[in-house]
């Protein structure tokens, strides 16, 4: 009798176990089939790439409004303000509620006096003008070569941003996502500082004028290199090609090229006051190619020395013969 | 307030203080970052560091004089540091308490029984101090303060900070951090075996305190030799110092847990010896010292390897201000402060780069960090608690002012690897290294050459007024219109090069027409396609070994330009150029 009840319990146990085992077996098979991959992995990680950072050129500029101002002087703030006035003031470019991204050159952890980076006075003047024109937010960014914290601190750019109420966007790894430039050969599935751009409606590029052995000159367009991430130095193999593609990566609203002091030798790092020369000129331009074409003159070079300008012009980024833009010429020292 | 409560507050305070100093060891503009916070203060309190460096160098460096405070207090009252101050001790105590949660009284009493092996730490101490006398300071491997600083700053903090981004903007990297972390976690996990396992059996600093407390006028002990055998006083005894019987004075860490637990109130902290008798030290055996002596003999064989001389590792770059290898190893604690503070994150704990004797001492890795050694940064030498890295001024590092004659501090010299360099080995323009060189005038200079490209020689072509039609297929994988490619008439080496501006089909547009005498259009010409290469050279007289070039070199695996220790300022023997 005891045996009989034992067997009964055993049978129930057996059926229970059979039920569990079957459920787990079914589950395992179902999961296996759901995840089944007959093809194997792609050779490279497939992520969706953007096609560029966007066109931020100022629409509805008044007809006949000057697009380029060449300002002589020594005081960066005064030069910028006078030049801006000649272009119709910041309200021509920035409207109420705009979110402005300022691309500075903060490449090196080097003090402003050495001229290797955007001068903090210019950044402050630009940021202030943006806020005065009604910008809701002003962001400042770059992906520097040296440690970013040190770069923004030592160049004085962090302090300039802080004092004017602009916010620095540090190039955290999470802000980079791949971009494939249509028709581009180099910027294909390449990490770009896309994460600095959400909500951005205007972009102002503020650059110093510097000697650069490989590219011959580092100004506005070369400054856009700082939007690239990854081991971007491989592109130095085709420096003119990459700068031309950078001119297609985004179209800035306004370019400020600060040649008050230019780095004539030992660029782009400099490191000594002897590498600098007072060239007393600031360019404000909606056209980055035109601005750089004038910068080339400040360095005492010609367009033929800097092939990427003609290439960028051919790609439609601007006009290398800046005189065709009929630039306004000002002298703030008189 | 009860003494135990005071002790707990003190332990929490010093643990929090330690963590605060970990956070403030960050280069940055804010008040909670590096600006006069005494981030080395806890390290400097260690008499083991002070004594070891005094033995190895004959001097007591600056902040290490704080150890005198610890020494005086220990001489008076015993191992207060272990019970009240040591943040690692606090962690051990907490872990040991947690591991015995809910266990019986008898189990706890048994865990806190004195064990003969507690003598081991004295042999270790003897070994480490003798080693220091021989000129090799290895105390920091086991001294709880360097151990804790290294373990938190280089392993746990970077992981915790990944999401928080308080201690650095980007992620921090530390080579072989896993090993440092494993040692730390093992030390904590040993509390599962016995409470304060590390403190009782391993800690050489505790052993030193034990020796120093020999004559302390105030001490823990019993007021009467009469005692029931309840051993309740040992239920939470952190030092396993046998307060129930003949107390082993050197093992008492002043946790004061026994004071209130004695049902008869016979235990006091007072200016008299214990009525039940005292032992000054655990029983030390000759065997233990023989083992320590053997270890010493083995360690003395390190120098036979010649690693600080003829057989030095040429890839071993020490941070700026580092002393020559022998004097450096006579000071470095491996506390990791330099590695923690380096904004470029290039100062890394060595594994075997400098031999076993240099384990976890700072070595520069130009691939792992954020950049080369930044010209205007002197953080590492400023935070080094022992001056293994001298506290350089910016003037001295850069060779300015009164240091102009001796020149800048050189970490080594960069060498171009012509078998990997793009313009040297692969006929590709590059020049990133030259661009990055922060020295003025640059230590990297270039020589321009024009080389015919592969399949680019002696090509049949038709010469037009502004360009050339090639009758040969264009070489693949090269952008001839990139501005770096030129055409010249074949067989005329002195002919001018013409830059290629554009390609359309097989037609090349040139910056200037090819010079063919007297002809506008010329069929059957022979041309060469040349690439213009600026090849990098290093001027060893100017190179400071900062590694900006190596860090940025686009040959991302084994870099095509690398810094080696040749010509480093710290060793006269390494001098390269004369």
UniProtKB/TrEMBL annotation, chain A:
Coiled coil: none annotated. GO terms for cellular component: cell envelope. Pfam families: DUF362. Residues 100-296 form the DUF362 domain. Keywords: Iron, Iron-sulfur, Membrane, Metal-binding, Transmembrane, Transmembrane helix. It is found in: Cell envelope. GO terms for molecular function: iron-sulfur cluster binding. The keyword Iron applies. InterPro entries: DUF362, TAT_signal, TAT_signal_bac_arc. The chain crosses the membrane at residues 18-36. Signal peptide: none annotated. Heterodimer of a large and a small subunit. This is DUF362 domain-containing protein.
């Amino acid at each position: 009798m005891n045996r009989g009840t034992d067997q009964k319990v055993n049978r129930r146990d057996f059926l229970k176990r059979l039920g569990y085992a079957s459920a787990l077996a079914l589950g395992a098979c179902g999961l296996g089939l759901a995840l089944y991959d007959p093809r194997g992995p792609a050779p490279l990680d497939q992520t969706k790439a953007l096609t560029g950072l966007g066109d931020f050129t100022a629409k509805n500029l008044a007809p006949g409004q000057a697009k380029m101002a060449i300002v002589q002087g020594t005081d960066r703030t005064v030069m910028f303000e006078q030049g801006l006035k000649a272009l119709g003031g910041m309200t021509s470019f920035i409207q109420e509620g705009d979110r402005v991204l300022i691309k500075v050159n903060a490449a090196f952890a080097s003090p402003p006096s050495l001229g290797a980076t955007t001068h903090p006075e210019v950044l402050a003047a630009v940021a202030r003008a943006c806020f005065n024109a009604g910008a809701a937010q002003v962001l400042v960014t770059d992906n520097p070569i040296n440690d970013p914290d040190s770069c923004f601190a030592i160049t004085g750019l962090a302090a300039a941003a802080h004092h004017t109420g602009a916010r620095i966007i540090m190039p955290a790894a999470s802000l980079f996502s791949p971009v494939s430039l249509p028709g581009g050969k180099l910027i294909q599935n390449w990490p770009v500082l896309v994460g600095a751009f959400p909500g951005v409606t205007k972009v102002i590029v503020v650059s110093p004028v510097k000697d650069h052995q490989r590219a011959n000159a580092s100004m506005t367009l070369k400054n856009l290199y700082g939007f690239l991430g990854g081991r971007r130095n491989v592109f130095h193999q085709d420096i003119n090609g990459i700068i031309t593609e950078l001119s297609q990566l985004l179209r800035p609203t306004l370019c400020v090229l600060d040649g008050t002091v230019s780095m004539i030798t030992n660029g782009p790092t400099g490191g000594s006051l002897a590498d600098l020369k007072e060239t007393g000129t600031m360019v404000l331009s909606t056209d980055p190619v035109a601005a750089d074409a004038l910068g080339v003159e400040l360095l005492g070079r010609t367009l033929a020395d800097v092939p990427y300008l003609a290439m960028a012009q051919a790609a439609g980024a601007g006009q290398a013969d800046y005189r065709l833009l009929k630039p306004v010429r000002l002298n703030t020292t008189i | 307030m009860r003494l135990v409560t005071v002790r707990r507050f003190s332990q929490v305070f010093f643990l929090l203080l330690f963590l605060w100093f970990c956070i403030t060891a960050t280069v940055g503009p804010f008040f909670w970052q590096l600006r006069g916070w005494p981030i080395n203060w806890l390290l400097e309190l260690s008499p083991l560091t002070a004594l070891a460096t005094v033995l190895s160098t004959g001097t007591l460096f600056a902040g290490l004089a704080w150890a005198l405070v610890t020494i005086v207090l220990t001489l008076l009252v015993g191992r207060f540091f272990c019970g009240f101050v040591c943040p690692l001790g606090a962690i051990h105590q907490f872990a040991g308490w947690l591991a015995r949660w809910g266990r019986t009284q008898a189990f706890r009493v048994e865990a806190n029984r004195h064990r003969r092996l507690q003598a081991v730490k004295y042999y270790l101490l003897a070994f480490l101090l003798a080693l220091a006398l021989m000129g090799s300071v290895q105390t920091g491997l086991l001294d709880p303060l360097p151990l804790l600083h290294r373990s938190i700053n280089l392993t746990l903090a970077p992981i915790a900070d990944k999401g928080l981004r308080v201690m650095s903007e980007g992620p921090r990297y530390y080579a072989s951090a896993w090993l440092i972390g494993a040692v730390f976690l093992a030390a904590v996990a040993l509390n599962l075996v016995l409470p304060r396992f590390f403190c009782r059996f391993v800690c050489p600093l505790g052993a030193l305190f034990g020796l120093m407390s020999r004559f302390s006028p105030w001490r823990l002990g019993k007021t009467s030799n009469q005692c029931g055998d309840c051993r309740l006083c040992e239920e939470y005894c952190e030092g396993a110092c046998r307060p129930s019987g003949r107390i082993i004075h050197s093992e008492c860490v002043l946790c004061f847990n026994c004071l209130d637990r004695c049902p008869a109130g016979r235990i006091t902290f007072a200016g008299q010896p214990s009525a039940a008798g005292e032992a000054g030290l655990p029983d030390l055996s000759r065997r233990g010292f023989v083992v320590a002596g053997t270890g010493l003999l083995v360690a003395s064989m390190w120098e036979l390897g010649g690693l600080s001389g003829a057989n030095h590792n040429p890839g071993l770059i020490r941070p700026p201000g580092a002393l020559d290898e022998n004097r450096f190893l006579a000071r470095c604690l491996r506390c990791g402060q330099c590695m923690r503070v380096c904004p470029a994150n290039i100062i890394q704990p060595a594994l075997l780069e400098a031999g076993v004797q240099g384990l976890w001492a700072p070595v520069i890795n130009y691939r792992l960090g954020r950049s080369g050694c930044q010209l205007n940064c002197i953080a590492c030498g400023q935070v080094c608690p022992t001056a293994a890295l001298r506290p350089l001024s910016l003037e001295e590092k850069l060779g300015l002012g009164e240091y102009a004659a001796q020149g800048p501090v050189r970490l080594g010299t960069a060498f171009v690897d012509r078998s990997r360099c793009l313009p040297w080995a692969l006929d590709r323009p590059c020049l990133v290294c030259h661009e990055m060189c922060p020295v003025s005038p640059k230590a990297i200079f270039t020589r321009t050459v024009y080389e015919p490209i592969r399949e680019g020689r002696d090509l049949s072509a038709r010469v037009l007024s502004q360009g050339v039609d090639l009758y040969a297929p264009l070489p693949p994988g090269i952008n001839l219109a990139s501005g770096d490619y030129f055409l010249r008439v074949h067989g005329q080496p002195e002919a001018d090069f013409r830059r290629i501006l554009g390609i359309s089909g097989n037609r090349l547009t040139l910056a200037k027409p090819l010079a063919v005498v007297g002809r506008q259009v010329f069929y059957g010409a022979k041309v060469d396609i040349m690439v213009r290469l600026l090849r990098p050279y290093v001027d060893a007289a100017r190179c400071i070994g900062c590694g900006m070039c190596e860090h940025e070199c686009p040959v991302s695996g084994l870099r095509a330009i690398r810094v080696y220790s040749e010509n480093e300022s710290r060793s006269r023997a390494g001098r390269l150029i004369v």
